[in-house]
Write a structure and sequence with these properties.
Layout: E1 6-12, E2 19-25, H1 26-33, H2 38-41, H3 53-60, H4 68-71, H5 73-76
Antiparallel strand pairs: 1-2
Bound molecules: zinc ion.
The site of zinc ion has 7 residues, from loops.
Length: 80
C-alpha cells in the first residue's frame, strides 16, 4: 500500500500497442482493480499520487502519452 513496494509493471497502450513500463505497488494495483479510482489508489502515505499524469491515463483510458493528443477532440479537427 501507499507505493511502499514499487515493482516494474508494463501496461500496453490500446492505440499504438506500445508497452509502457512503470513502477507501482502491487497492492495499490489490486485496490484499483477492485474499483478504487486511479487518483486515489496510486498515492503515497501523504496522499500524493506517485504515478505521473501519463501513467495514470494508461489506467484510466488505456491510451499512452504519445497517442493522447491524437485522440483529443481539439486536435482531431486538424485531420478534417
Ligand atoms: Zn500509444
Amino acid at each position: 500500500m501507499f507505493g511502499e513496494i514499487l515493482k516494474p509493471v508494463a501496461v500496453q497502450c490500446v492505440v499504438c500497442r506500445t508497452w509502457i513500463a512503470m513502477r507501482l505497488d502491487e497492492e495499490d494495483l489490486a485496490c484499483h482493480r477492485a474499483g478504487v479510482l486511479v487518483q486515489v489508489a496510486f498515492t503515497d502515505q501523504a496522499g500524493v499520487p506517485y504515478l505521473n499524469a501519463g501513467e495514470r491515463e494508461l489506467f484510466i483510458s488505456g491510451v499512452c502519452n504519445e497517442c493522447w493528443p491524437l485522440l483529443c477532440p481539439a486536435s482531431q479537427l486538424e485531420y478534417d
